[in-house]
Design a protein that fits this description.
Blueprint: H1 2-20, E1 21-28, H2 30-34, H3 38-48, E2 51-58, H4 62-68, H5 78-85, E3 90-98, H6 100-108, H7 121-125, E4 134-136, H8 140-150, H9 164-167
Antiparallel strand pairs: 1-3, 1-4, 2-3
Helix pairs in contact: 4-5
The chain binds adenosine-5'-diphosphate.
């Protein structure tokens, strides 16, 4: 009987843990890829304790870039931004973890690298807003939409990382 309760308890724990997990879309833009910053950027998310669940390198079409940045279509820099995103390989990723959307944005830093704190990715590695090397979803809704735009469901890998018990306790 006690074994039965132990199993029920473990399943509940697992469920509670899974419910807290969220996913965000992170992309290294063509400038970050060309500058050889892939490993540096991945390493910051990895060392924090977030889990990589999807990754691929693609050259997005201009049309695709416009879909990705559709919220910004009224902005004066929209066309240049979409030209830039489609100008070379982009490393598209999905990262998973508790609070990964908000904390991912913290790791990335402010949109304008001049205003990003030292210690953030843009603060440490970029200088101007038009070449700020990385994209990260800005909220749960955009995260969901962006993951769906960039990845097919079967490209997302669900797995347990054995380090999780040391990261989450
Ligand atoms: P973030 O990428 O930090 O979420 P936004 O969604 O506001 O920022 O903008 C998307 C991208 O558009 C920025 O990462 C940057 O590459 C580009 N961008 C934003 N503002 C400007 C600007 N004033 N001039 C040129 N490019 C810009």
């Amino acid at each position: 009987v006690s074994f039965f309760f132990l199993v029920v308890y473990m399943l509940q724990e697992q469920e509670a843990h899974a419910a807290e997990m969220e996913r965000t879309f992170i992309a290294i833009k063509p400038d970050g890829v060309q500058r050889g910053l892939i490993a540096e950027i991945i390493s910051r998310f990895e060392r924090k304790g977030f889990k990589l669940v999807a990754i691929k390198i693609v050259i997005p079409s201009k049309d695709f870039a416009q879909r990705h940045y559709h919220d910004l279509k009224e902005r004066p820099f929209f066309n240049g931004l979409c030209d830039f995103l489609s100008s070379g390989p982009v490393l598209a990723m999905v990262w998973e973890g508790e609070g990964v959307i908000k904390y991912g944005r913290k790791l990335i830093g402010a949109t304008d690298p001049q205003k990003s704190e030292p210690g953030t990715i843009r603060g440490d590695l970029a200088v101007v807003v038009g070449r700020n090397i990385i994209h990260g979803s800005d909220g749960p809704e955009t995260a969901k939409d962006e993951i769906k735009l960039w990845f097919k469901p079967e490209e997302l890998v669900t797995y347990t990382n054995d380090a999780e018990k040391w990261i989450y306790g």
